[in-house]
Structures are given as C-alpha cells and as structure tokens.
Amino acid sequence: MLIYLLGVFQEYCVIINLYNGDLIPFISEDIEYSLVDILILVTRILYFKRNRKNLIDVSLISLILFSHLQWSLHSPFHEWPSWWIGDKSPTDIRHRTEYYDTHVMCFIIWLLMFFEYIRYFNIFLL
After folding, report:
1. Residue range(s) defining the domain that contains residue 60
2. Better-predicted residue by pLDDT, 1 or 65
3. How far from 107 is each of 58, 78, 103, CA to CA, in Å?
C-alpha cells in the first residue's frame, strides 16, 4: 500500500535526526513514533482481505508498533516507569545505538513491505 511510504518517510527522518518525535509536546517521543504505526495498522485492517500476504503485513506492522512501544518502557533517554517491575541501574542502561538500530529495522521492514506491494500488484514507478 502506498501508505507504507509514510512509515518509510518517518523512520528515515528519525534515522537522519530530522524528526525527533517532538511535534506533540504532551506525549513521549516513543508514543508519537507509534502513532504512524497505529494509523497504518488501522488502515490495513480496514482494507483487510483474507490471504497470506495481508496476514503477514498485519503481523509486520504489529511488530513495528511493538518495537516502538517497548522503548517507552526501556528508554535509554528517560527513567523507566514507576509501575515497571524492574529498576533502572547504571549497569543496565540500554545504549542509544540499540535505539537507532530499532528505527533502522523498522525502516527496512516498511521499505520491504512497500517494495513487495509494488511487486505483488505489478505497479511500476517510473
């Protein structure tokens, strides 16, 4: 679907530090990154037809959404939530490289899903 380009664009902007998840000031950046995933997931579910490709797409979008949401629990930039069972200590700080690796992984998944959409429907972009 062409809406996958929204995910590609967002992740690319995060990777090159053009977008830092600060457009909506009253929510955390990890939740803000997830808003695009939720929009695409809802769009995908609304146009869902029962076949293997669509099931794989919804599964991959859910993986991307979970990947963004898990950083709100284990952020290398902020304290962990008080209700979380673990405590953040200096020896278990997750490195920001892992954080950006997650965004690169999401970028690749969005890009591959877009390319698969083009191949599946024989759409050629000139």
Report:
1. 4-79+92-120
2. 65
3. 16, 23, 6
* pTM > 0.85: yes or no: no
66 found inside a domain: yes
Structural domains in the chain (count): 1
What is the per-residue pLDDT across 46-61, written as a single tens digit (0 to 9) for each?
887 777 778 888 999 9
- In single-letter form, the type of residue at position 98 comes to E
Question: What is the DSSP track for 83-126?
Answer: TSSS---GGGPPPHHHHHHHHHHHHHHHHHHHHHHHHHTT----
Question: Average per-residue pLDDT in the chain?
Answer: 84
* CA–CA dist 44, 58 (Å, integer): 7
